């Protein structure tokens, strides 16, 4: 359609151009005809022919202008795309190669089979390495025995040294004890008197003058009856209303006299009384006025709360006086029922017995010191002997340990190598190539490598390498759970590509249009020979079927933007400066639009290369003037036509004389 319009516009422009030139041409021709009669007939024929062509051209232009092929502003859908030719890739590819040599004993799969990650692929003869593992076990056992022997020898030496050290420590403890006994004896000599450690009345004496006692011996029993306590039962409900610190009035049963005391304790134990009653005991302390003895009974009142029975008085303090040191009693200063005070001297020890204790303690201390010196001498002798062999023993243990560790490490390496004799599927997928089978012998190999991956780029060179690697591999597995392709987008367009954008994919193999999405945009660009850098864009094909296979050539279009039912014009109708020529009367004198058209500024949007979206400036149905193919090319065509006309005119005038000569 656009080519036809282009021809129409060229003819129309040419017609306008010819109209202006004909006037000049006919003036010159009329002058020529007056001077050359012979040429007049020829010129008339030529003029008739030119006139016929001109009229036909005008009619053709008019017919084209009135036809329904005029360019109009219309609504349409526009998709802005980035296109590239590429190939289909599997989600992942793995080429299986062997790290070991040997005969293949088993290969339980065939080309085309679907395998899961971890499935057995090949079993390789491992008899040689299994023999090496058995030898390694023997080496480990020997090294372990040597190491244990070295440890035991070293431990014996350590135990001997520890025994000597223990003897010294025991002797040192014995010296400390003897020293303490000696110090205690000296202290006893400094203080031969025994003193009471309580205040009260002596109720019983347990020693007599001339007795020999030890430290801690009970000398006498003592009571303090200056204060008495009595536990009186109160009904449980009443006892709960009595509080510690309250005053209590006591009435003695024997004579009815009264004495005041203070509540010091309310018992927590609930006891049963007569007549299904319960009670708690309340403890009351009183100062003894002298008429109360332990064992007397009394009743009590706390405020207006009365007890339900009498209680019995007890001495507040009943204790014993003990000897602070030992010896022979030379004098005794107390008697039963006598009153003593805390710190009062109650007896005197014989100094002879104390001196005997000092002498005995000193002898024990000297013996302990001598034992300590003997233990130290024995320890030094043992240490000297041990020191001579320490370096040798430690060296033997270290050497045995290193030998044992090396043997264990060697076996671990062999066990790790043994794993390489059983080759399992590294990924789940389909076996597309099987180059090795049961019975084949393998030479030395290298680690398996993945030719494709789920992300990243795949250039033509890497695909070539992949093919070479596949041919030398034992087997090749494709993971076709997903199919992908990689587009190389130039540096001017890559900024418009975003992950998640829709991609349309077509191939000559099938009529189906597949859909994909942009999955990854790599920043690892490659500079081309034309100086333009391209960036790999990975596309995930989401609706592939069995007809689409890895390695197929496809055309992929990334949909950068998409608009629907918008005003659009052909790109060829858009002038520089975003203007178009719209049919209508000019509104400005300097408007250089063709006759019958006016210049209009437009605002544009998305473009698919053929049409471009227009936001403003024109309306649907308006007719446009196409500028495609005009400009310098049209001017050149007009200039060439003008030159031919000048040549024709010049040839006619030059040929006249020649003709006249005839």
Shape call = elongated
- Percent of residues in β-strands: 25-35%
Decide which structural class fits the backbone.
alpha+beta
Q: What is the rounded Rg?
A: 63 Å
CATH class of the largest domain: Mainly Beta
State the major sheet.
Answer: 6 strands, antiparallel, barrel
Number of domains: 4
Number of helices: 7
The assembly state of the depicted protein chains is single chain
CATH topology call of the largest domain:
Elongation Factor Tu (Ef-tu), domain 3
* Unreliable residue stretches: 64-68, 445-468, 628-662
Give the tally of β-strands: 34
Summary, kept brief:
The protein is α+β, with helices and mostly antiparallel strands and 662 residues long.
Q: Topology of this structure?
A:
Layout: H1 2-35, H2 37-66, E1 71-72, E2 74-96, E3 102-106, E4 114-115, E5 120-124, H3 127-190, E6 193-195, E7 200-205, E8 212-213, E9 218-235, H4 236-239, E10 247-252, E11 258-266, E12 271-272, E13 278-287, E14 297-302, E15 305-306, E16 311-322, E17 327-332, E18 339-340, E19 345-349, H5 351-419, E20 422-424, E21 429-434, E22 441-442, E23 449-452, H6 460-472, E24 475-490, E25 502-507, E26 510-521, E27 526-527, E28 533-541, E29 553-570, E30 579-583, E31 597-601, E32 603-607, E33 611-616, E34 623-625, H7 632-661
Antiparallel strand pairs: 1-34, 2-23, 2-24, 2-29, 3-5, 3-22, 4-21, 5-20, 6-19, 7-9, 7-18, 8-17, 9-13, 9-16, 10-11, 10-14, 11-13, 12-13, 14-15, 14-16, 17-19, 21-24, 24-28, 25-26, 25-29, 26-28, 27-28, 29-33, 30-31, 30-34, 32-33
Helix pairs in contact: 1-2, 1-7, 3-5
């Amino acid at each position: 359609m656009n080519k036809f319009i282009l021809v129409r516009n060229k003819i129309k422009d040419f017609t306008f151009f010819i109209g202006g030139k004909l006037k000049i041409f006919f003036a010159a021709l009329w002058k020529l005809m007056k001077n050359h009669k012979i040429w007049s007939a020829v010129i008339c024929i030529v003029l008739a022919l030119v006139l016929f062509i001109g009229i036909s051209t005008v009619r053709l232009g008019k017919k084209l202008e009135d036809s329904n092929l005029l360019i109009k502003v219309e609504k349409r859908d526009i998709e802005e795309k980035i296109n590239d030719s590429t190939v289909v890739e599997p989600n992942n590819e793995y080429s299986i190669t062997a790290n070991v040599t040997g005969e293949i004993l088993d290969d339980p799969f065939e080309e085309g089979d679907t395998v899961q990650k971890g499935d057995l692929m090949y079993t390789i003869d491992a008899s040689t390495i299994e023999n090496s593992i058995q030898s390694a076990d023997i080496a480990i056992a020997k090294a372990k025995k040597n190491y244990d022997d070295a440890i035991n020898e070293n431990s014996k030496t350590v135990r001997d040294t520890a025994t000597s050290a223990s003897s010294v420590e025991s002797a040192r403890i014995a010296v400390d004890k003897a020293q303490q006994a000696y110090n205690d004896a000296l202290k006893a000599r400094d203080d031969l008197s025994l003193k009471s450690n309580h205040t009260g009345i002596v109720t019983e004496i347990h020693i007599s003058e001339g007795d020999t006692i030890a430290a801690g011996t009970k000398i006498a029993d003592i009571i303090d009856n200056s204060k008495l306590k009595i536990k009186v039962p109160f009904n449980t409900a009443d006892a709960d209303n009595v509080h510690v610190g309250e005053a209590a009035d006591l009435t003695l049963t024997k004579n009815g006299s009264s004495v005041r005391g203070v509540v010091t304790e309310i018992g927590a134990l609930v006891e049963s009384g007569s007549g299904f009653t319960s009670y708690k005991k309340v403890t009351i302390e009183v100062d003894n006025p002298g008429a109360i003895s332990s064992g007397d009974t009394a009743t009590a009142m706390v405020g207006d709360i009365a007890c339900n029975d009498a209680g019995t008085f007890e001495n507040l303090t009943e204790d014993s006086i003990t000897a602070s040191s030992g010896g022979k009693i030379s004098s005794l200063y107390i008697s039963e029922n006598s009153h003593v005070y805390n710190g009062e001297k109650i007896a005197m020890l014989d100094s002879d017995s104390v001196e005997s204790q000092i002498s005995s303690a000193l002898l024990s201390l000297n013996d302990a010191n001598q034992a300590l010196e003997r233990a130290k001498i024995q320890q030094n002798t043992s240490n000297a002997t041990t020191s001579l062999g320490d370096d040798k023993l430690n060296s033997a243990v270290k050497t045995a340990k290193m030998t044992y560790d090396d043997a264990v490490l060697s076996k671990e390496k062999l066990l790790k190598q043994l794993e390489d004799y059983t080759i399992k599927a590294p990924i789940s997928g389909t076996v597309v190539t099987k180059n090795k089978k049961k019975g084949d012998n393998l030479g030395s190999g290298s680690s398996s490598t993945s030719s494709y991956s789920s992300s990243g780029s795949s250039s033509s060179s890497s695909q070539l390498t992949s093919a070479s690697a596949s041919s030398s591999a034992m087997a090749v597995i494709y993971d076709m759970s997903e199919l992908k392709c990689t587009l190389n987008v130039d540096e001017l367009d890559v900024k418009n590509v975003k992950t998640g954008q829709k991609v349309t994919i077509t191939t000559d193999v099938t009529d189906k249009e597949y859909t994909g999405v942009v999955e990854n945009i790599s920043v690892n660009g490659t500079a081309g020979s034309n100086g333009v850098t391209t960036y790999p864009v990975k596309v995930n094909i989401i609706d592939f079927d069995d007809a689409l296979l890895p390695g197929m050539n496809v055309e992929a279009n990334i949909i950068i933007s998409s608009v629907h039912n918008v005003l659009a014009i052909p790109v060829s109708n858009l002038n520089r400066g975003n203007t178009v020529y719209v049919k209508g009367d000019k509104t400005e004198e300097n408007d250089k639009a063709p006759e019958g058209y006016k210049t209009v500024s437009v605002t544009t949007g998305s473009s698919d290369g053929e049409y471009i979206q227009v936001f403003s400036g024109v309306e649907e149905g308006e007719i446009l003037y196409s500028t495609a193919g005009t400009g310098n090319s049209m001017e050149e065509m007009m200039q060439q036509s003008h030159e031919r006309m000048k040549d024709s005119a010049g040839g006619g005038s030059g040929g006249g004389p020649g003709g006249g000569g005839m």
